[in-house]
Each structure stands twice: as C-alpha cells, then as structure tokens.
Amino acid sequence: MSSREDETLAHAAVTALTWQLALAPKPGLPDPRDLGARATGEDHCSLRWSAKALAPGLAAMAAAARRTGSATPGLRAELGAIGRCTEHSVALAGGGHRGALWVLGLLVAAAALEPTATGCDLAATAKRIAAHPDRGAPRKPSRGSSVSAQFGAAGARGEARAGFPHVRRALEALATARSAGAPEAQARLDALLTVMSTLQDTELLHTAGPHGLRRVQAGARGVLEAGGTATAAGRAALTALDDDLHARAWSPRGSGGLLAGALFADALPVRVSSPARAA
Fold first, then answer.
1. Over 70: is that where the pLDDT of 117 sits?
2. C-alpha dihedral (196, 16, 228, 251), degrees to nearest 10
C-alpha cells in the first residue's frame, strides 16, 4: 500500500509531465495550440487527461522502492510488472506516455530510495536500479529495442543504464537558461532542445531513419545557436523546426519524456502535505 510520501512523489512526477505537455511550441510534439491530433496522431487534451492515469502506478513504484530499501533485482522486476499494468491503465485512458512512464518510474523509485537525492545523485540511483534485468519482461523485443539493435542506438534502456545523461544535460540547460534571465517556459524549451540536439531517439529512427534523426538534431542545435527560445532569432528557428517536423509527421517523443524526468528531478525535494485538521 502506498503512503502519503509515495503519493506525493507520484503527484510531483505527473505535474512534471503536465509542465512538459504545456510548453509551446514543442517541435513535432502536441502542445496547447493543437486543436486536433495533427500529424503526430496525438492531441494535447487527451495526453493531459491520460497523464493522470500514471499516478497510481507511480505511487506503487515508490512504495515498492521504499519497502525494498535498495536497488535489488527484485525491485527491478516489481517495477517492470507495475509498469506494464500502468501502461494498460493509461491505454484505457487514451494512451501515450510510455517513454515518460519509463523515465519517471525509475526516477520516482530512486527518489523513494534516496529521499534527499536530487539531480545527478537521483540519476545515479536510477542507474543502479536499471542495471538489473527485468525478469518478467515479454520475450518478444519491443519496437524500441529492435530499433536500438538495428541502428546501434542506446535506446530507453541504454539511457537509464548510463544514468540518464540526457536528464542531466536538461538539468544543466535549465540552470544555464535561468541564470541568463530566461523566463521559465523558455528555459524549459531550451532544455528540451538540448536533449533533442544529441539524443538518438528510437521513435525518430523508426519513422525518419538516421538521416531524419540528424535533421532533427541539427534543427534543435540551430535554435540554440541562434540564441535559444528567449530570443527573436531563436523563436523564429523554433517555429520553422516545429512546422517542418509536423509536416513530416516526425515526433521526438523520447526527448519529451526525458524533459519530464528532468523537470521532476529539478522539483525535488517535494514536501509531504500535512493532513487537514478537523474543524
């Protein structure tokens, strides 16, 4: 059974995902300006709704980590089983967020194991959990793992086993943009583009191939090199990249999930709400 601490972590993770969803424009990803699914096959409203369905599973992951007390093979197997159940619940609520669930699930479990950990320390704890194989995972390879093997990309598992280097890069980008005086929304967009500029996104490799991936990475670097999204030149480059990706139906979903993980890590530590006093 999850505790108030576990539910607080789950709520913080869902809130971080909601922050990521609220950004606009996000190149190739749904945002509040979208009135429909556009080329990606997803829309912002349904993704916001289905994000709420992650909360019970994330709380259960935190509870499992707190109960286990260390990054054991048994904890990894339990997190995998909870994750698969949560994927089913999210699918019933509208779908989406599979990549975000992987990132946030490991980070929530890490936060439950190490309540004082933030940033890189949190990623290191998640790395220790991800180092173990998921004994209950389906034997049939996922599309992401098949693409990773085909193109030699790290993929979601490789990212976690490396200690989420792109979550760490996003945290650095957030700090840099904030220190330069960028508004929070622009700091978060710059962090997203920082991830996009180097991530070997298996979703993009599947839909666009290596050439398309390099095009997206170059486009993201172009926005940052133009001064970032807080500048007029950067905003113009961002709009052009967003239009290009939507026209091609290329969606860097992996980058979106990793940004949500960075925003969760950035918000830690979270405080547990005190129970309301009786009148």
1. yes
2. 30
